[in-house]
Write a structure and sequence with these properties.
Layout (H helix, E strand, L loop, with lengths): L29 H26 L14 H9 L6 E3 L5 H6 L4 H8 L17 E2 L4 E2 L8 H14 L6 E6 L6 H12 L4 E7 L2 E2 L2 E2 L12 H5 L2 E6 L3 H19 L2 E6 L17 H8 L3 H11 L5 H23 L17
Parallel strand pairs: 1-4, 4-5, 5-9, 8-9
Antiparallel strand pairs: 2-3, 6-7
Bound molecules: thiamine diphosphate.
């Protein structure tokens, strides 16, 4: 990892600098590899299910697909320690799974049913599950970064050696609050990791109209922290990069900006048909599908057979179906619940 500077060559084109062959990290054993794959498949199947529920009119609020982001979400969260704290964003269902949230809980919240943490007032994941150390996500892009930085600072003041990790998109990183949060974390040398999920579009705006620097991790030099750009579809590379950054932060050396390059494979949310994304670009990135490639890798490495992976997927789908059948029958919360935490008596 570059120290106090970024790994800079050229502004990534989204083509040439994304490697095809996957990394085999010496930091992982085969059991951990199976866990990575399991959580990536869980995230993928959950996504397909949410797409269907959205079309059936059963899901409310925005349904933000995280297809193409599974390696980034799962690889990064998996690198964290037991006491560390996750501040996920809207494309990080994989991280929720890594931190032990189950499908039923995810669905109760996203389908805004009785028992949801936001009492039905939200269907897009703006809730915290403090027992699971998941604090997410604030809608105002950039606002999570000062919160994750502040959490890291408070923990340090309490004498706890924890690391916080949060996420921001290539669009959200352009906001003032993002800058303030990163600067604060760098100045205070806070144990915070920021994953910049560069999926090349912020709604319909391509990277070319979002920023003029070469790589987003180059900004680390200006902040005086660590920065690196990686292929966000390579799960073991994501894991290893995050593991190193986390240990570096835990040792008191401050934050790292990790620009994880991926491609948003669907619209901003399911209401958006993403007509503005060139088809050729999607076809190119389809070949880099993080889940399919990691499945192939696991088979080639002799860790699981094709049949074992197929059985794993079947059991995940069965579990998902059971959770959907249960959750869609749950009542919606009483409308009065909507006033709670909004107005003071
Ligand atoms: C400060 C702020 N401005 C605008 C929005 C509305 N908004 C929500 S998501 C989004 C696009 C975000 O793009 P990016 O940060 O690249 O993340 P992506 O959705 O591509 O993962 C916008 C404009 C917002 N939530 N917050």
């Amino acid at each position: 990892m570059a120290k106090k500077s970024a790994t800079s060559t050229k502004k990534h084109s989204g083509k040439s600098d994304v490697q095809q062959s996957l990394t085999r990290s010496s930091l992982l054993n085969d059991k951990q590899r199976i866990d990575l794959l399991t959580n990536m498949i869980r995230a993928r199947e959950y996504d397909y299910a949410m797409q269907r529920l959205n079309r059936q009119g059963r899901a409310f609020g925005g349904v933000y697909s995280q297809i193409g982001n599974e390696a980034t979400a799962v690889g990064s969260a998996s690198a964290m320690g037991k006491e560390d704290v996750l501040f996920p964003m809207h494309r990080n269902v994989g991280g929720h799974y890594v931190f032990g949230q189950d499908t039923q809980t995810l669905l109760i919240n996203q389908l805004a049913r009785e028992g949801s943490m936001m009492r039905g007032t939200d269907g897009t994941g703006h809730y915290a599950d403090t027992e699971k150390r998941i604090y997410g996500n604030i809608s105002h892009l950039g606002a999570m970064i000062p919160v994750a930085a502040g959490f890291a600072m408070a923990a340090r003041m309490r004498g706890e050696n924890i690391v916080t990790m949060t996420y921001i998109g290539d669009g959200g990183i352009q906001t003032g609050e993002s800058h303030e949060g990163i600067n604060f974390a760098a100045v205070q040398k806070l144990p915070m990791i920021l994953i910049i999920e560069n999926n090349q579009y912020a709604y319909s705006s391509p990277s070319s109209v979002e920023y003029a620097c070469e790589k987003l991790s180059d900004r680390a030099l200006g902040y005086g922290c660590f920065g690196i750009t990686i292929d966000g579809t390579d799960v073991e590379l994501v894991y290893e990069t995050c593991k190193n950054a986390i240990e570096n932060a835990r040792a008191g050396n401050g934050p790292t900006l990790i620009e994880s390059v991926t491609m948003r494979m669907r619209g901003h949310a399911e209401h958006d048909d993403f007509f503005y994304v060139p088809k050729e670009k999607l076809e190119l990135w389809q070949k880099k599908d993080p889940v399919i490639r990691y499945e192939q890798f696991i088979i080639e490495q002799g860790i699981m057979t094709e049949k074992q992976i197929s059985d794993l997927r079947t059991s995940i789908i069965e579990e998902l179906r059971a959770a959907i059948d249960y959750v869609v029958e749950l009542p919606f919360p009483n409308a009065d619940e909507g006033y709670k935490s909004v107005f003071v008596d």
